[in-house]
Specification:
The protein has about 400 residues and is α/β, with parallel strands linked by helices. It has a domain of about 170 residues: Acetylglutamate kinase-like (Carbamate kinase). It is built from eleven helices and 20 strands. It has an eight-stranded mixed sheet with strand order 3-6-2-1-9-11-12-10, sandwiched between helices. Strands 13-18-20-19 form a four-stranded antiparallel sheet, sandwiched between helices. Strands 15-16-14-17 form a four-stranded antiparallel sheet, covered by helices on one side.
């Protein structure tokens, strides 16, 4: 199984290069299924066009529109492979039997029917599948959320019982930090599923979180590598029994600038209030990241939480309705924030990591707004303007430029 991101298929020249990768792999006797994203900035351009037509477009129609980008890429790639002398066929997610639920723009895969793919592979063809999309039982097109081509590839790899799922992108693998922000970041040879899950959920843009969750569940090894440079990349796999995890407490740091904070001020301090807020947000499919509840006076609390910027308006509408019913003082938001995180399986057995994080940020004169922790990660919300400085400070604090592979 191979997956190629939008930058890998951005133009005719890059499509030719990808076709060469697939052709070479198939020539070695491998049965190849490739999943592709839309070319270059196609997805962003479609979103911009839709917003010009309707600032609040129906989600079903957005799925109809957004699915076209991957169809263009898959058909062109199949043509390029065929030109090299290898029979190839392109399919949409619906044509290969990727069945999802009915939640447009954020659908979840229910089942995959692999009969058609196996038939074409048995006939000697390379199969190219559109990423990011599927179909409901009522035959409506759905999409899996931004970055969902990773999920398509991993789910198909599991369904087809592939040996490995190769994720081709424009970087050579997974680094200790974004090398565009931290120049001395180093590429990792291997990383544990749990570590990459934490980093992906906290802003590292190499892998889609839901894709890693599926890979971990079914123990599907992932190989993140470059489609531009023929080098080994980074393996993502279960490493819980490897002594390697003792070599570095923190394995990577991540930054996201794509979140916003919402605060409901002066809500009643009584059981069930938080449940009511977050149950209502769940009903409109708003995912919550960090949550902080501050105990105030006069039996009133403030509840603050973060959401993806893309969900901000939907979340605000819901929260304002809830706030009015609860007679909250006000609902405010801040979309000028960043979240910086550290993650590493070694944190499970190491004390003092939090103190080192906070000390490093203090030395860099970065103020912390919110804090969230898990067994193997620590995240801090800071002002957006301080995000990159915070990332560099944490990378330096834990010596990640010198990390042993």
């Amino acid at each position: 199984m191979q997956k190629f991101g939008g930058s890998s298929v951005a133009n005719a020249q890059r499509l030719e290069r990808v076709a060469g990768i697939i052709y070479s792999c198939a020539k070695k006797g491998n049965r190849v299924v490739a999943v592709v994203s839309a070319m270059g900035d196609t997805t962003d351009e479609l979103i911009e066009l839709a917003n010009k037509i309707n600032p609040d477009p129906p989600e079903r129609e957005m799925d109809m529109l957004m699915s076209t980008g991957e169809q263009i890429a898959s058909a062109l790639l199949a043509m390029a492979i065929a030109r090299k002398g290898r029979p190839a066929i392109s399919f949409t997610g619906a044509q290969v039997g990727i069945i999802t639920d009915q939640h447009h723009t954020t659908a979840k895969i229910r089942t995959i029917e692999t009969k058609r793919v196996h038939k074409e592979l048995s006939g000697g063809k390379a199969v190219v599948v559109t990423g990011f999309q599927g179909m409901t039982k009522n035959k409506d097109i759905t999409t899996l959320g931004r970055g969902g081509s990773d999920l398509s590839a991993v789910a198909l790899a599991v369904a087809l019982k592939a040996d490995v799922c190769e994720i081709y992108t424009d970087v050579e693998g997974i680094y200790t930090a974004d090398p565009r922000i931290v120049p001395d970041a180093r590429k990792l040879k291997c990383i544990d599923f749990d570590e990459i899950l934490e980093l992906a959920a906290r802003g590292a843009q190499v892998m889609h979180t839901r894709a890693v969750e599926v890979a971990k569940k079914y123990d599907m090894p992932l190989h993140v590598r470059s489609s531009f440079v023929p080098k080994e990349g980074t393996m993502i796999m279960s490493m819980s029994k490897d002594k390697y995890i003792e070599k570095a407490v923190v394995r990577g740091v991540a930054l996201t600038e794509n979140e916003a904070k919402i605060t409901i001020a002066d809500v009643p301090d009584k059981p069930g209030i938080a449940a009511q807020v977050f149950n209502e947000l769940a009903k409109v499919h708003v995912n919550i990241d960090m949550i902080v509840q501050n105990v105030g006076c006069d039996k009133l609390n403030d509840i603050s939480f973060t959401v993806a910027k893309g969900s901000l308006q939907k979340a605000l509408k819901t929260v304002k309705d809830i706030g009015a019913r609860m007679k909250a003082a006000e609902v405010t938001y801040d979309d000028d924030i960043a979240k910086v995180s550290v993650a590493g399986v070694g944190m499970r057995a190491q004390a003092g990591v939090a103190g080192r994080c906070f000390s490093a940020l203090a030395k860099a004169r970065v103020n912390i707004d919110m804090i969230s922790t898990s067994e193997i990660s620590i995240s801090c919300v800071v002002k957006k303007e301080a995000g990159k400085k915070a990332l560099a400070a944490l990378h330096k604090e834990f010596g990640l430029s010198r990390i042993k592979q």
